[in-house]
Amino acid sequence: MRMASATANCAKIIEYVFTQGFDRVVNIQIGAKTKDPLEFKDFEDVMEAWVAQMKAIFSLLVRSVNLGRFIGHKITPRPYLSSISSRSIESGLDVCDPSISRGNAWITGFTWVENADSLAAVKKLVFDEKKYTMAQLVEALDANWEGYETMRLDFVKNAPKWGNDEIVE
């Protein structure tokens, strides 16, 4: 029996690039403490921060999944799922017990497209065209785009999109 052991909201990766890994929703440092975005000199700095955030998020998830594989079946057994698993029925063990598993742990990532679209927009509008500065972008993001509607629409409508533009694919 196979099932995802963790789910990653990958849009947090691009968010953390601009907050140095600090999550403003839960008010704690979750991602990597990367360079202040106001110090980004080129798009490579943005990508370096993005890679660091991706590694930090998936490292956290992998460690959680690994811990869960050893204790999950003890603290959160799945009797219904076990009742329809031939291995569980034959062994009498919970479906998540690692002794009967063939390595069913994996992480499901969603919202990847937001990363590609956001990175492409930053590259085009901040670094290639220099239409906005990084300071302006950070200010707009800090304000959740309130008071920056024209700029927000520029990022939404006038930047490459995954699946539609070669640069993003």
Automatic annotation (TrEMBL):
**Membrane-crossing residues?**
none
The PFL domain extends over 1-169
The GO terms describing molecular function are: catalytic activity
PANTHER family, A to Z? DEHYDRATASE YBIW-RELATED, FORMATE ACETYLTRANSFERASE 3-RELATED
Q: In its UniProt entry, what is this protein called?
A: Alkylsuccinate synthase
Question: What species is given as this protein's source?
Answer: uncultured prokaryote
Question: What is the primary gene name for this protein?
Answer: assA
